[in-house]
Write a structure and sequence with these properties.
By secondary structure, this protein is mainly α. The chain is built from 1 helix and no strands. It has one domain.
Length: about 45
């Protein structure tokens, strides 16, 4: 198990890094969308 874990860690770390970057981009997009929606709602109010 230790050998498998060591061999998987590098690949997993790279995949996690890419996944984290994608998640950050998605979060940024959602935050921008939420801000735009909140601004529109405030304008409507």
């Amino acid at each position: 198990m230790r050998k498998d874990v060591r061999s998987l860690t590098l690949i997993d770390l790279q995949e996690l890094d890419s996944a984290i970057l994608l998640l950050r981009l998605e979060v940024a997009k959602s935050a921008r969308i939420k801000r735009s929606f909140s601004r529109k709602n405030c304008r409507k109010c």
